[in-house]
Amino acid sequence: MLDEAHVLLAAGGRTGRAHEALRLRAGEHDALEAERARLQEENFDLAGRLVTAQIRRLESEKILLESKIEWQRLEEKTAGEKGKPAPREEPPAKGPTEKQKP
Asked: What are the pLDDT digits (tens) for 23-66?
């Protein structure tokens, strides 16, 4: 863009139009540079927010998987206890046997 303005300046001499064109091109260049800087900053911000969201998602997924594993362990433990026979209760111990009277 600036090269075009320099060509105009060289071809037309130092006329007011060439200076005006150069000034306009420089203004456009500055505006485009400012827009590029703004977009780059926005891009960095969005990238940071994306990384944060991904970390939170992974942490949530980890908690969910840990919960599922614990739930499965409890189910297996409960199923194992249901499958075992209940412990038998021993009859109460009898006192000393009495001698039979003849």
From this structure: 888 889 999 999 999 999 999 999 999 999 999 999 999 999 99
Task: Give the global pTM.
Answer: 0.50
**DSSP annotation string for 32-56:** HHHHHHHHHHHHHHHHHHHHHHHHH
Q: Taking CA 99 as the corner, what is the angle to CA 93 and CA 102, rounded to the nearest 5 degrees?
A: 150
Q: What is each CA distance from 9 to 23, 48, 65, in whole angstroms?
A: 11, 45, 70
Structure tokens at 78: 């409960």
Tokens of 98: 């009495």
Q: Extract the tokens encoding 53.
A: 């969201």
Which candidate, 22, 19, 16, 17, places its Cα nearest to that of 4?
22
Token look-up 């980890």 returns: 62
